[in-house]
Amino acid sequence: MTTASPPPFTLPSLPKIFHNLISPFPLLTYPPVTVPNKRTVTAPTLWIVPPLSTTPDTKPDFLSADVECLKWQAHLALRGVHAQVRWDVDAAGALGGRLPCLQVPSEVAKDKDGELLAAHNIPGWIVENAGEQLGELEGYTNEEARDESRAWIALLEGDVHAALALSQPAPSFVLHTLLQVPFAHEPQSAEKILSPPPAPLSGLLSLVQPLGKRLAVGGVHARYHEAVAALSERLGTDRWFLGSAEPTALDALAFAYLHTLLNSTDELRIEVARRVNLVSWERRVYEQVRSSFESSGSS
Known about the structure:
The protein has about 300 residues and is mostly helical.
């Protein structure tokens, strides 16, 4: 006598009302995503903040809208180092969370990704890889010009940069303070640039703890106007600043600030635009820097 096997266990079907509820949201299975093959880094590539115009219907400018990135673009181009640029990398993916970074081929690690250098390591890489070495004078005509260049660099990165930082739109309190939305590219505040730094809003001997900064906007703008006038007078009709025969680090820095100022707010732009020699000099260097990245096949 044989006994019948018990029927297989089946889950009870869902009521029709649940079928109707989940029918607009079917469970779909997609094929696995294939990881594209990495392209070997064969040329130095500078990661930058996007240019002002990157729309498909306009010709790409290749020059970053950020003055810090543009400094190194100009430095590479004027030293004759052919490099590519890319602006599809967010600042959060850069070293230290700040752009620019220079991605160079790695001969030691034999890695397709190459080696990534922070901005402060770019000068050392240029010295090792540039065809012509500048020597102790760094491309200037004599020691006096080299020492004078330090003062002009401090002026550009101090008074001029402070005015440029003040012209940037104020960060949104709701987005960046309440909602904690990260900056696409965090701006550098003028308080960190000025020397000496501005005093706090509350006195040191008051009952209220020192809070905020007492920033004299009028003083910053006055020093900016004086700096631009001095820069124009020092350039004169020379081909390069301080009478150098070839472009130097000061020329790269001056171009980055002049180009950014000419694309800034009217108050800053007009002060530079009324100096004919600065505008014509910026246009000439602009063509040289831009053509360097066009010929390198940047995209």
